[in-house]
Amino acid sequence: MIRFTLFDLHNIVSTAPLRPLLMLGLVAVIGATAPVQGAAIMVGGYMGAMLLSSVFLTDERGRLDALYGLSRVSRTAVVFGRYATALVVGAGTSAFGFVVALVIVAIHRSRVEWTLMGLMALGAFVVAVISISALLPWYFAMGYARGRQAMLVLIIALVGLGWLGSRTSIFDGATIAALMDDGAGITAIILVAGLAVLTASAALASRLYRNRNL
C-alpha cells in the first residue's frame, strides 16, 4: 500500500506538474482575498481532495486500471493506497494554506488568532473527509470520465452547506466560543468520526472496485 501511495504521488508531480501548482495558486489567491483569517487552510483541504481527480484521469488515459488488474497489486491495496494518497495530499495542501495564512498575517501586521487558525484546520479536515469520502467511491466504481459529474455535485453541495451556514448562527462568535470551550473534546470527536467515515468509504470503494469490469 505504501509503495502504491508513493507511485500515486510520483504520478501527481510528474504527469501534470502544472496542476498541483495551479491548485496551490488558488489556495494562495482565495486565502489572500478571504475576509476570515486562516481561510486558506480550509481551502487547502478542499483543493487537496480535488487534486485526486487527476490521478484517476491518469489511470484512465494510461489504462493503468487494467495494469493494476494484471499485476500482483490487489484492488483493495489500490483503494486503500489511494485513500492514503488523498490524506497525504490534503495534509500537504492544508499545510501550504497554513503558511499562506501566516504570510498574510505578517503582511497585514496583525495578530495571529490561533484559536481561529485551529478551527480552520479542523474545518479543512472536515471538508477533506467529506470530499474524499464522496468522490473516491464514485471514481472507483465508474472511472474518471463517467464519475467526474460527482465533483460538480459535491461543489454544489459544499456551496449550499456554506450558504446555509451563513444564514444560520453556526458561524457566529457565540457558536465558535461554545465549540472552543471544549476544544479538545470536540476535536477528538471530529477526528474519530472523520476516520470512521473514511474507513467506511474506503470499504465501500473497495467493494465497488472489485466488482468493476476493467
UniProtKB/TrEMBL annotation:
Pfam family, one: ABC2_membrane_5
Tagged with keyword Transmembrane: yes
Name of this protein: ABC-2 transporter permease
Residue ranges of the TM segments: 12-32, 38-58, 79-107, 119-140, 152-171, 183-205
Organism encoding this protein: Microbacterium protaetiae
InterPro entries assigned: ABC2_memb-like
Keywords associated with the record: Membrane, Transmembrane, Transmembrane helix
Signal peptide region: none
